[in-house]
Design goal:
homodimer, about 375 residues, alpha/beta, Aspartate Aminotransferase, domain 1, Aspartate Aminotransferase, domain 2, seven-stranded mixed beta sheet, 14 helices, about 40% helix
Chain lengths: ~375, ~375
Amino acid sequence: MKFAVVPEHIRDLQPYKAGKTLQEVLDVYKPERIAKLASNENRMGCSPAALKAAQDTFGQIMNYPDPSSRALRAEIAKMHGIKPENVIAGNGSEGVMSLITRTFFKDTDQALTAAGTFIGFWVLINSRGVKLVKVPLTQNYAFDLQALADAITEETRVVYLANPNNPTGTYFTKQEFEWFMTQVPEHVLVIMDEAYYEYAKDEPNYPDSMRYRMDNVITLRTFSKGYGLAGFRVGYGMAHEDLIGNLMKVKLPFEPGSPSQAAALAALRDTEFIERSVELVLRGKERLYAFLDKKGMNYVKSASNSVMMVFDNENDAAHFTDKMLERGVVLRHLPAFGIPEGVRITIGLEEDMTQFEWAFEQVVK
Amino acid sequence: MKFAVVPEHIRDLQPYKAGKTLQEVLDVYKPERIAKLASNENRMGCSPAALKAAQDTFGQIMNYPDPSSRALRAEIAKMHGIKPENVIAGNGSEGVMSLITRTFFKDTDQALTAAGTFIGFWVLINSRGVKLVKVPLTQNYAFDLQALADAITEETRVVYLANPNNPTGTYFTKQEFEWFMTQVPEHVLVIMDEAYYEYAKDEPNYPDSMRYRMDNVITLRTFSKGYGLAGFRVGYGMAHEDLIGNLMKVKLPFEPGSPSQAAALAALRDTEFIERSVELVLRGKERLYAFLDKKGMNYVKSASNSVMMVFDNENDAAHFTDKMLERGVVLRHLPAFGIPEGVRITIGLEEDMTQFEWAFEQVVK
């Protein structure tokens, strides 16, 4: 016997499948070293000031966190010249996305996004039980804004754009974004997922969505990528205060936790750490591009902290990923992201990229 | 202008209202000391081993947490003689409750609970947009299981029971629970919120819902109360593996965070700390009962770590709470919990209770 009453859209959901743990990779393949390049984490670690700030909350850890993340939201607001009422902090930017799906949908609404983008959004929509419409990426693995605009209907409630896109690293320009927004009716909320903003902000013509302040756009950023705090689960959203106010009503009162709020605040202030992180990735990308060019491999130029290699087919991509894993290089094969021919490589430390090249030479002959 | 498309049930939600911060209390009333007795936190703090374990995760904080909290769930399972597949960890037990509301409801379903219980559940149901049916407490401020059983209909999907109840501290017995479950049809999921389990487990005839293993019951426990880890946001649910499996599909992959998982695991193993915490509360309750008896005050005997005083009316309760606050004693007046004549006092350290008595002598003449 079991509790039988489960809505169909929940029954149909696939459980999250984690890859091998590092320990499992070590146990099975016994590599000398692991290059963990599968999850777009910051291989430099994080700001020491963030850890210090988290630890400073330990003396009061028996108390509930500040329910409105006042200090953190005030700092974010100051950075962007907005009010704290325009900011919400959540359990990662995915946590804020989850709030959006719980706040703005009726059962008959629909969500619209690309067929090759962040899985987390798809899962949230599917678990909310509303219809998810996916539009193919362009041949260059970019968001097809024209096709997305064409796909908007009366039922569309939310459009999700990741800029730069995950896992492809592509971005759309100011001009493309501005044109797209002229096509979006007022009843549609646009989620601009800028999880990789810190890496992309200096790309030519990159549209920082915060410069527009449109009433039906929410900008999401995270501490899990550039700031290196993935383990603490903090992200934030910025939008019109009425929109944020509604999300705040749905948010669990005590998210994020106290050490997480404190770590994020300190990380924001450590501008030197984030600059060094971005520089490391820029250098690493140039090195990887040069290497892959020399080897005649296909890949997509990236505005984020990862680069997607493109193989002829799913089998080749899977084989490459497996063989690299045997040599301690953990990469992300992308069938679940809708790109079975793609393999995503996080840009890591110099020694990570050296290990990647060493393993590549053995795997691809 | 603003984003106008907000469902009515979201518009109608009240934002979470935090009380004064401790800093605000200090600034306004300048008490010599604060007795923070408003949130049922553990005034003893937490296990040092928990903090050590949290800190040990800092070296890997740039990495995402274990998405399935393997180590923590295995330990919880071992404690209860169940499988890890019967356990889910979330952002506090409220986080697991939120998952339940996102997993098992259709729009036409209803939830059923008491009119004087944990606000968090009401907010979750209201934000999910399904109908919430509330049954008055008994005259003794206990769950009225007979009335709840009578109120179950075909539309009822979830019944929420807190045992002991928050904020009243009352509990229902094994016999009452067993009878109630005979009245619950299979299509109804019973949430047994046992956030105060550690304090209640030795009360006469207290029903530990884990001893029953019913397929339509989920038992919730938390690290925020007895374990003193409210700032870390960890709670867990235990149920049939099919039920847990569906919750796991809806859970954000990376909750709880890494330091939170580690702290909770270490806290579970520090049995000495939790025993001391429970003893402190037992002694503190006896002392408070004796004091209130001597003063001829009305209160409700409690199986949790707080005691509810009962005043003649809302005004008296509010006045008492305000006057105590001016003397640094922070209590919770309970209109939002549906009990406007009630004031909840967390059992604190001996010095907290001494300060309570000192302030009481000044306030009630």
